[in-house]
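Reopening: Adenosylhomocysteinase still failing for me.
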Amino acid sequence: MKYDVKDMSLAEKGKLRIEWADRNMPVLQLIRKRFQVEKPLKGVRIAACLHVTSETANLMRTLKDGGADVKLCASNPLSTQDDVAASLVKHYEIPVFAIKGEDNQTYYKHIHAALEHQPMLTMDDGADVVSLLHSEKKELLQYVIGGTEETTTGVIRLRSMANNKVLEYPIIAVNDAQTKHFFDNRYGTGQSTLDGVIRATNTLVAGKTVVVAGYGWCGRGVAMRANGLGAKVIVLEVEPIRAIEATMDGYQVMPVAEAAKVGDIFITVTGDIHVIRKEHFEVMKDGAIVCNSGHFNVELDLEGLAEITTSRRTIRDFVEEYTLKNGKRVNVLGEGRLINLAAAEGHPADVMDMSFANQALGAEYILNNAKSLEKTVYPVPQPIDREIARLKLEAMGVSIDTLTPEQEKYLASWEMGT
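Support: Ran it again with your exact input. Result attached.
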């Protein structure tokens, strides 16, 4: 079996992490038990490009138990948990190509390695596998039935491909499931982002001014958690409806040029390029902390920052101090990559339980409906979304009501009136 991980001697520690995460992923456990019996993915070759973490490991176990032939590579160079990667190879015989801190060349070499078995399904977190298949590896498209996409940035890229009629196979947008974007993006990103900032800096959040760029589900979660820790929160937005929502939620809303002068901690979660630019870095307070929790590090214009920098040094793990020509210092966390995975452990397993349940059931859905699906991006079918929520509530010991026949009739009719 081919693989490329940092150190196989880390495998035992990784196995414990996988087991710990599994205890907090009851929905995925139930799916795995069914998959072990039914084998709905039997003989299906899957190339997965996801964050290589203990939670992802349990998704890989589920896919393999469902009969799939899985290969896994990293969707981010800094998010890999090397012990988990080693355990997947040693204990679960799943080929992994991921090393924490790998350079860009190695990153793409690993994606190529994951594609060597001519995948029939792709699982992406950022659409890098899909992009590669549509550019350098077009000869492999003939084998692909469909794919799934985990994150907002990837869905944006894939919808662009579909709109331009260049997408060659159907994709399920796992990110758009309510049990993903509401729970994962809001509560997962909110908690894990602040966790990463605190682990990297050991700074006190209370009393600080935290600037959150973007007020989508991730931005809502980050703002909520920063506010809960006692921060004064400023939101940056370009969309009027989200801006008014942030205002009504009690946050200040202003342009980035104004916020740059008063913020202590800056967190980008927009999915767009160069949200914080050279002219913004120049006016920041001395000692400002800047990080990104959007998928790619392009949200921070680090090249522009380098142009106005006289020196830089790593002052703490995951903290690079830039001394600017004006004498001020700006601290960039985790090389501008996902701070919640670069400096922390990403989302809690409780959160990823539902996201990866969507991945597993999304893969099964594509296989069962491939002949009727067009080459475009589909939402997760609502029955799957609702069933995952039901199972999660059950696991949490939460009960809900059901409509009476009278109530169902009332909601479905127009005759009864008031």
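Residues 95 and 194 are 32 Å apart (CA to CA). If you still see a failure, please send the error message rather than a screenshot.
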